[in-house]
Amino acid sequence: MKPYQTLVVGVDFSEYSREALRHGILLAKTHGAKLIVVHVCDMDLFLPLQMGSLTKHIERQDEWTQACREQLDEFIDDVQDEGVQIEKRIVMGTAYKELAHVAYKTKADLVLIGTHGRGRLEHLLLGSVAERVVRTAPCSVLAVKLEGSQPYKQK
How many angstroms separate the CA atoms of 16 and 22, rounded? Predict the structure, then answer.
């Protein structure tokens, strides 16, 4: 197995994605890899909120992107001094598609993503970003569970 050179970590600012970031940092240190931390401003949430002129739409999108950038800076602030090369990216779109696209464009060796471990009903209604990334990414995907999360219980 060749060492990882580029790792992509998808973050949604949850504790689940913080755990994925921790794993990414550890792997980046071990392999001397670059870490690309990506937050996707989900268009499915943004577009229904938009009304009015194209100029207003662009202004709101810029404001939202800036707010996401500030939140990402704050989210990774405590890991900046870990001795790992970190590149931050804010992209607009649908989370699983954009994470797969970033992985493709950067020739990533691995995508890391936190998994919320939703129940069957929530999964059916909301789907799973992690599952979709696994299906669409051009490389391997590590779905990271939050330490102490409940394991599957058989009935």
Answer: 10
pTM, two decimals, is 0.81
The answer to whether the beta carbons of residues 98 and 42 sit under 8 Å apart is no
* pLDDT given at position 56: 60
Instruction: Find all residues with CB under 8 Å of 20, minimum gap 6, and list them.
Output: 9, 10, 11, 112, 113, 114, 142, 144
Give yes or no for a contact between 63 and 55, defined as CB atoms under 8 angstroms apart. no
Q: Are 68 and 16 in contact (CB under 8 A)?
A: no
pLDDT tens, position by position, 96-120: 999 999 999 999 999 999 987 555 5
**Is the confidence at residue 137, as pLDDT, over 90?**
yes
* Phi/psi at 8 (5° precision): -110, 130
